[in-house]
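Example for tutorial group B:
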């Protein structure tokens, strides 16, 4: 059957009486990083999605090719990956639950522990804001209520205010370190103090999607917090440092009283065989991945020092990105970047997040910042 223009128009007409859940109309739409525009004479660079600009290691690509059997379902428990992670992290394999990226692992957790109660009251999920923009979507879809606690002016979590926001309806607290999109990490001392203030029946999630890029010696290690605190859940992913964003493989780490319920809500076959084998190969060649990551960290240092030399004031960057708190100038800066064939991630009238990309992309970004006069400046 050939689709005509009239067929397309008819398909776009909503069916009468079909309506979404009321919460759908209240949720923001996730806005993925846009690709760069084509500018004649310039190589285009995408700095809007916090992707690793480099492909997986050759050994990982070999593993992907060898695992390319797609007519069979994958192992629903990702046994090979969980066993490899168990050895790599020195944690029981039973404490690991895989998911479609760290976001998939988070969605499984929220679906299990936060939602609508029989009395009609919604559970509460506390998280910093601004932070990962999928948080309000995931919380809302789970049926829970978002409690957003504003960041400190320097882009860090206001942990005191987050602790004060706890009520009898609080079920989950999300900590994002390094915080996306602002960049600072939480320290071990800060998290230890925070956990002492939180009732142990509340799950505290430490979202470490960017932990591969952290070089702050005082930064919290989520796995160590999980070892000491039974209510801590750690989220990690292979999307960033390992460069497997397109394969969607992440995981959570938690103690048995949590994971035994998580497995019920885990999406069957969420991690493909190809993704699993790529992640296993990445762990087995971790030293080579660290070398690549160190190159991006060196570029991050160059960008940060370059911005500071230009007089810009930015939060401490510990992810693979930097944050420019541009306020109402955000759309204008993003437009100027587009004219330079650079796609950056603009957040309303709050600021711009710029991924650390290829050397030429970073150099062009610094050149733009050198000529831009409205940015946040060191006082």
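The residue assignment follows.
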């Amino acid at each position: 059957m050939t689709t005509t223009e009239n067929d397309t128009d008819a398909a776009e007409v909503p069916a009468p009486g079909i309506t979404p859940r009321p919460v759908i109309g209240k949720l923001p739409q996730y806005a993925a990083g846009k690709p760069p525009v084509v500018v004649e004479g310039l190589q285009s660079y995408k700095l809007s999605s916090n992707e690793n600009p480099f492909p997986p290691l050759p050994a990982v690509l070999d593993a992907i090719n060898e695992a390319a059997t797609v007519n069979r379902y994958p192992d629903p428990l990702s046994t090979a990956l969980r066993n490899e992670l168990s050895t790599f992290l020195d944690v029981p394999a039973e404490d690991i639950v895989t998911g479609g990226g760290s976001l998939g692992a988070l969605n499984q957790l929220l679906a299990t522990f936060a939602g609508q109660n029989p009395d009609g009251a919604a559970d509460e999920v506390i998280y910093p804001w601004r932070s990962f923009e999928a948080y309000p979507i995931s919380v809302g879809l789970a049926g829970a209520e978002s409690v957003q606690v504003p960041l400190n002016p320097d882009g860090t979590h206001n942990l005191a205010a987050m602790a004060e926001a706890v009520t009898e309806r609080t079920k989950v607290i999300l900590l994002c370190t390094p915080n996306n999109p602002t960049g600072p990490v939480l320290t071990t001392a800060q998290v230890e103090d925070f956990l002492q203030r939180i009732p142990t029946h509340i799950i505290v999630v430490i979202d470490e999607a960017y932990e591969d890029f952290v070089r702050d010696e005082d930064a919290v290690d989520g796995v160590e917090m999980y070892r000491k605190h039974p209510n801590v859940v750690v989220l990690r992913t292979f999307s960033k440092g390992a460069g497997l964003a397109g394969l969607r493989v992440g995981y959570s780490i938690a103690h048995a009283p949590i994971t035994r319920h998580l497995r019920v809500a885990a999406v069957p076959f969420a991690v493909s065989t190809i993704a699993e084998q790529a992640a296993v190969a990445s762990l087995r060649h971790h030293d080579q991945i660290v070398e690549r990551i160190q190159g991006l960290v060196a570029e991050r240092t160059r960008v940060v020092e370059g911005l500071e030399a230009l007089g810009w004031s930015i939060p401490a960057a510990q992810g693979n990105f930097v944050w420019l708190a541009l306020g109402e100038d955000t759309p204008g800066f993003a437009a100027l970047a587009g004219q330079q064939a650079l796609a950056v991630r603009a957040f309303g009238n709050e600021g711009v997040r710029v991924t650390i990309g290829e050397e030429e992309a970073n150099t062009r970004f610094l050149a733009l910042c050198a000529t831009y006069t409205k940015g946040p400046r060191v006082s």
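Confidence is low (pLDDT under 50) at residues 1-8. Compare this with the pattern of hydrophobic and polar residues in the output above.
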